[in-house]
# Entry
Amino acid sequence: MFDADLLEEALSLGNNRMSQVRSKISSEWPRRSTRPDGDGKARHPLWDRDSDTWFCLHCDGKITGVQIAKNLWHCPECGAVPVDILDTAFWCEDEGKSLPPIGDKAKSDISKPEFHVVDDRPKLELNERNIVLLMRSALLDDSTNVSERLGALLAEITVDEDNDVWIRSKSDLWPDDKAPTQAINVAAQLGIEIEWETMWSKIPFH
# Structure
């Protein structure tokens, strides 16, 4: 979106769509909900109440009738939906008379869009489930035949509170002298320790 031509085209499409949405909403709401009277009183689109001062259930401040109508009955401060916009601040002792006015933060100047640079690089959350999945996948990479693949799938993988790993493989399915190279490499990349142990078990089938 840093390309000027692409940004201009995207804004044009977005503005046209916004106008369509606003027109559709305005046609379904009472006229006074989107057009306050001369005293600044606007009618709530869900309840038959008129007022020149409104309160958001989530913000400690006053909203004028002109503000709330302009922003299609979403709070200019936090974006709360119309059901949370009330004509009395019942949670205050003075019913909101002492609350300061909320600034008009509705986006009126759409020619100057706000940019937020997002780091979209993949991030790995180290938790027990993800570590077990990575270790088992590494064991499958180390497997060279059906027996070893079965051993990788049946291996017991335990993760302690420090995210260190303990793997117990079945000696009937995984050779005693074969080290889990890929699992060791993955553990090194994750910065965790790995303990490897083989145990005897009955062959599951002949």
Notes: The chain has two domains: 4-86, 128-199. The longest strand covers residues 165-170. Residues 106-110 have pLDDT under 50 and may be disordered. The longest helix spans residues 4-28.
